[in-house]
Design goal:
CATH topology: Rna Polymerase Sigma Factor, Chain: A
Largest sheet: none
Low-confidence stretches: 207-212
Radius of gyration: 18 Å
Helix content: 55-70%
Shape: globular
Number of domains: 1
CATH superfamily: RNA polymerase sigma factor, region 2, helix turn helix motif
Order of helices and strands: HHHHHHHHHHH
Distance between the termini: 36 Å
Length: 212
């Protein structure tokens, strides 16, 4: 298969070729999703991003035949990434309830992520201060545009409860924004259009290996 065909092939076609022994198809899958997975980790940990990426892809390699196609391959990858993130914290003695503990509570301060606008910086700090499961739900909504049933699979919760989970996450974020140290005008600007400020961060999050 030519490189152009790899670029155009859907995930499931690349996965089938990978299962059949085509390592180039597997590499194409990894390249396609590398930036999104890098974004996933960069605003949650201050070190070990490379290990987390490698562990996620390794788990995908080892479990590729377990993927049954009931959801998208991207959802499958993010579910693995979430598991690897929690394992990362536990290995560092940070066992916690991730529905209540934030990355700040877990001792992480990903300061390498730098935003250009003050509203974006305030929003990043607020995201890091809410429970990790809430942070994941909101970042995947804003940055990857995942839907409710996809978030439910990644967070391992019933589909009929994900709407309330996201609602609680948004409420927690607004409360965190109210508590941020920032000029009143900046805080008001951020809170008046949280969705747009959050989406604007997507392109600014540096990828692994890039300078901040």
């Amino acid at each position: 298969m030519a490189q152009e065909s790899f670029n155009e092939a859907p995930d499931h076609a690349l996965l089938e070729r990978w299962r059949a022994g085509d390592s180039l198809a597997g590499n194409a899958l990894f390249r396609r999703h590398f930036k999104a997975l890098s974004r996933f980790f960069r605003n949650k940990v201050d070190e070990g991003v490379e290990d987390l990426l490698q562990n996620t892809f390794l788990a995908c390699v080892e479990g590729r035949d377990k993927f049954r196609g009931r959801s998208s391959f991207r959802t499958y990858l993010f579910a693995i990434a979430r598991y690897q993130l929690y394992a990362h914290f536990r290995k560092r003695g940070r066992a916690a309830d991730f529905t209540t503990a934030s990355v700040v509570d877990l001792g992480s301060s990903p300061s390498r992520v730098v935003a250009r606008k003050e509203e974006q910086r305030v929003l990043l700090r607020a995201l890091r201060s809410i429970p990790v499961d809430y942070q994941i739900a909101l970042e995947l909504t804003y940055w990857e545009e995942l839907k409710g049933h996809e978030l439910a699979e990644i967070l391992d919760v019933p589909t009929n409860t994900i709407r309330s989970r996201v609602w609680r996450a948004r409420r927690a974020l607004r409360r965190a924004l109210e508590q941020q140290r920032a000029p009143d005008a900046v805080r008001r600007s951020t809170m008046s259009n949280i969705d747009e400020w959050a989406r604007s961060l997507r392109a600014q999050l540096p990828q692994h290996g890039e300078r901040d």
